[in-house]
Amino acid sequence: MHLSEQTGWDYVRAAFQRIWGYDDFRPPQGEIIHSLLAHQDALVVMPTGGGKSICFQLPALLRTGLTLVVSPLVALMENQVQELHQRSLPAALLHGELPSYQRRQTLLDVQRQHLRLLYLSPETLLSPPVWEVLCQPHLKINGLILDEAHCLVQWGDTFRPTYRRLGAARLELVKRKPPNTRIGIAAFTATADPHAQGVIQDVLGLKNPDIFRLNPYRSNLHLAVQTTWTPRGRRQQLLKFIRQHPEQAGLVYVRTRRDSESLATWLSEKGYKTAAYHAGLSPDERRYMETAWLKGDLQFVVCTSAFGMGINKPDVRWVIHFHAPMLLSEYVQEVGRAGRDGKAADALTLVSEPTGWLDPEDKQRLHFFQERVRSQQRLAQELVQQLPTEGDVNTITTQFKQGAIALSLLHSSGQLNWQDPFHYVLTSTQLPQFPKQEQGVQQMLQFLTTSECRWKFLLQAFGFGDDAKSMRCGHCDRCLSR
């Protein structure tokens, strides 16, 4: 099928209408689909709720062969695969929480080429049993999709180091396949500033990618920041805000597991249907809580950043940050979970007064996270003198407690190359110099204290300076106070 021919594109549009029931694509969905069908590399930055998943699902379904979708969270994979199954489409997922018989069956379906889409985490993709199957020469792989690609930037250095090895995955897969095999890579995210876009392109090794960028402005999303003076005052402001949104679905974001549990307990005592969600819960507990929130059995969830990514609940009317995120990209991701149905939604961030004398928690929390990153960077600096010049990741992680993170940080600092997803070469044994974290933190603080339109600030920060020039949303707290 030649997509340059009108008949070819009519076929694509007809498949889209048959599967999803929409009349036509929203810009730039059609252009992205066209790009992926041509095996082009692509970087797609579209706001939350903009219909990103259709852009890679449709091309995958229209071709024989498999498309791999690398996704950061089990809940996100389950949500998308469940929706595909409801439409009787050939998709599956693999993750560590699945029973072994289900993993075996899925890998058998992959080998028999019964699937079009396979969702999996970076860690599962590069696990030996899965990787060996995917490398089989007869197995046709059309593309590698990185969903929620900002996670590569936010988590790839220290939290999920496997992200840094994904660029080498394509090169190795192509080597194992018949001559002239083409495997495109496309990265999708709602939040990537110009720096993050550069990191994504560099790490994934995108070749002359088609770039699609929509600014993050959402006219239905009303942003506000409020100063609180004491820990008790912060809780009272939270309570007041929730009471102003009776029976409406929402999310309360905190930064730590302990905060989510103590706050959820306090709000439950106040009579609210809520629960704490964090990475320490069992898989069954997380699934139960996500389902309860989607069905409306829980009005809101008190959660860390792990919750909500990619979960499609259109009627979320509010998001409150009980603690501000460290990075602007996290903030835009999290507020973007409100108002996906296009109706008005509120996003409030609570911050302590600037000196921190009466409520030092914000400063203490920021210091804790920064010190943890600095500690990991110091470890990488120590290990660079001890690492063999060439080696494999499994040996290093066995020998050194945080060896995988050290390798990732050295890759980030330009002192290490991946020959394939498992073997590295050190290009320098000099003491690595890491970029200071302060820039991202400072940008977040500037947003919280800005006197200009908050949406204007966000557009400028994410590289949409031209769109920001005449911007005055008229509905954020700064615009309304004028």
Describe the fold and architecture:
The chain contains 21 helices and 16 strands. It has helices spanning 6-20, 29-37, 52-62, 74-86, 100-111, 122-125, 128-134, 150-155, 166-176, 194-204, 231-243, 257-269, 283-295, 328-335, 361-383, 393-399, 403-412, 438-449, 454-461, 465-468, 477-480; strands at 42-45, 66-70, 91-94, 117-120, 141-146, 184-189, 210-213, 221-228, 250-253, 276-277, 300-303, 318-321, 345-352, 390-392, 416-418, 423-426. 44% of the residues are buried. It has 482 residues and is of the alpha/beta class. Helix 5 links the parallel strand 3 (91-94) and strand 4.
What gross morphology would you assign? globular
Strand order of the largest sheet: 3-4-2-5-6-1-7
Helix content: 40-55%
Sheet/helix structural class: alpha/beta
Strand content: 15-25%
Question: Quick check: average pLDDT?
Answer: 91
Radius of gyration: 23 Å
Features:
16 strands, 482 residues, disordered N terminus, 21 helices, 7-stranded parallel sheet, alpha/beta, 6-stranded parallel sheet, 44% helix
Please give a quick description of this structure:
This protein is an alpha/beta fold and 482 residues long.
